[in-house]
Amino acid sequence: MAGIKLSRRDRIKKGIRKRLTGSAERPRLSVYRSNKGIYAQVIDDINGKTIVSASSLSKDFTADGNKTEQSKAVGKAVAEKALAAGVSQVVFDRNGYLYHGRIKSLAEGAREAGLIF
Question: Which pTM was predicted?
Fold first, then answer.
């Protein structure tokens, strides 16, 4: 069963990435969700560089609550780091995941902190 879900997500992910690229002016906010944590990166695809990143499992991250609340805190953290690096607009890459639950709360947290999608 897990193989079917992963292959479905990969197919959706390829379709999204076909239409979506991040530039220096408007980089891509990529999200990865695992069972234990959530990760977000702001990526400039043209230069192949990760500008900023944040994770719920990093050492400097301190947020309590359930995974959805932690995702919102990761969204705020990545937005604050991006704004400090001079990035105010991004393209949101949900990476094949449904825009629901933890992915949605991360996006809402990033918008609340000032990132523009």
Answer: 0.89
pLDDT digits 0-9 by tens, 15-74: 888 888 888 789 999 999 999 999 999 999 999 999 999 999 998 888 889 999 999 999
Binned at pLDDT 50, 70 and 90, residue 116 comes out as very high
DSSP 43-86: EETTTTEEEEEEETTSTT----S-HHHHHHHHHHHHHHHHHHTT
Q: Give me the number of domains the chain comprises.
A: 1
**Which residue's entry shows tokens 């002016």?**
25
| Residue 117, in any domain of the structure | no
Domain of 33, in residue numbers: 2-112
Any domain includes 89? yes
Question: 């629901």: which residue's tokens?
Answer: 100
Q: Assign residue 64 the CATH number of its domain.
A: 3.30.420.100
Cβ neighbourhood burial of 62 (10 Å; 0-12, 13-18, 19+): exposed
17 domain residue, yes or no: yes
**Does residue 18 contact residue 10 with C-beta atoms inside 8 Å?**
no
